[in-house]
Amino acid sequence: MSDLEGLANTLLDKNFPESEVKLRLIDEILTFKKGKSKKEAEKIADAILREVLRSRSAKQSRNKILRKLIDYPRSNVSMGVMGVGSRGEGDIFVHKLIAKLASFGGLSPFLGPLSLDDAGMVSFGDLIIAVAVDGTHSRLSNFPFLAGFHVTRACLRDVYVKGAKPVALFDDLHLADDGDIGKLFDFVAGINVVSSLMKVPLVAGSTLRVGGDMVIGERMVSCVGAVGIVKAKNNVTAKRNIRPGDIILMSEGAGGGTITTSAIYSGNFDVILETLNLRFLEVCDFLLESNLISKIHSMTDVTNGGIRGDANTICREAGVGLVVDGEAVEKMVNKKVLEMLKHQSIDPLGVSLDSLLMFVPKDFSEEVRSQIRKLGVRVEPVGYVVDKPKKAKIIVNGKLLDLKPKFRESAYTEVKKVVGEESSTNKAELEKMVKKAFYSSIKKRNFFLKIVRRSMLRGKR
Which of 295, 302, 311 minimizes the C-alpha distance to 360? Predict the structure, then answer.
């Protein structure tokens, strides 16, 4: 995929002459566009360059408000350098700031972004409505069916683990200009398999091109969201409900989009088939329908950077400490999946396993475990909750060690291993630069809030 607008801006920022920028654009167009003549490519390149130059001139407008509106605050830190999307310390840091900004306005959702929980919740009359949205794994662009299947499972998991019954799905699908239309159908077919079997309809969606005319290639980016309803407030299983003394139960995990990606790009294709199941969703549905959910304080899925990332987020949100048995966790990973992880030197504790974690009072833990096992699903205790210290610990070879996320999740592809799991830059300096952009965004938000509010008041007169 090639971002022609981005390429033009980058070259102009580096003071390349316009004639050279145009030649680079022509070369990109001829590389990606089948059957385009050089003359046609020149026309497209000319139009792109003119549009880019006009848009750049807007940032030099004499109108201060317009300049402020159009431009954005620079952190001078890229997504890749900060590890955003790589589900480690860097990703968590940025998501905390996003959650803070999203929470401005004095609104009080039942479960808001600051909780960094699996789903958000709002009260509406006697109802509690849960909403979750999950982005499709970026490396599954060329495997649309798998992408649709796994992202649908993911958003349903996020709703289920908060004690909500999913009632609707929605999607947003972007396919680049040269993408084959068949990808759209394959993606939705993957969604529909999960939708049909779990009896949750896909009711709305949007389909667009990635970057419109400015992005060429076949890349697909997408997401699927779910809406659910909680029947009773005391059945909400938010992370903040976890209590000291709770037993941590974990179901067997065979992975989803992450494990599928690792399997594809490492050549372990048989592992892909292990991920094609709905056991997690079936267990959650059973817990809701049987009302066993009322005996569980909280649930979550082992996804965001594996148990390393999840454990520390839980400790902060619930104000508790966790003690996790590393060996017990590994035993709950599907055998074929675990073999692949070991063979590829991927840490099972730092990768998304798609296991169900349940935090259950000790008096009910055996009942919950035995009832789930009747479904033919393995579930075992893998740890417990303590009052202090309020941090995550792990037992490894009889030793109690800190359970910390790395800067990035476990490197589960060859490319990720090259990038590395730790930051090559000073983390404190990166955070400082990112925070500067964050605070500038708050100022911009407050500035335009006043302007738009004034226009609303004028309209009411």
Answer: 295
Query: Which residue ranges of the chain lie beneath pLDDT 70?
Result: 459-461
- Residue where one domain finishes, among candidates 220, 236, 252: 236
Number of structural domains (the chain) is 4
**pLDDT tens-digit series, residues 195-208:** 999 999 999 999 99
- 264 and 376 in a single domain? The answer is yes
Tell me the C-alpha distance between 432 and 359, whole Å: 36
Distance set, CA 217 to CA 31, 142, 415, 429 (Å): 9, 12, 21, 36
Tokens of 105: 């306005």
- Collect all residues with Cβ–Cβ distance below 8 Å to 209 and sequence separation of at least 6: 174, 175, 176, 177, 179, 215
State the residue range of the domain holding 435.
Answer: 77-107+429-461
Contact criterion met (CB below 8 Å) for 405 and 309: yes
Q: Which of 236, 251, 283 is the last residue of a domain?
A: 236
Q: In angstroms, rounded to a whole number, what is the distance separating the alpha carbons of residues 208 and 292?
A: 42
Cβ atoms 386, 399 nearer than 8 A: no
Asked if residue 225 and residue 267 are part of one domain, the reply reads no
Six token digits for residue 356: 């169900």
pTM value? Answer: 0.95
End-to-end CA distance of the chain: 50
Instruction: Choose among 154, 156, 176, 170: nearest CA to 221.
Output: 176
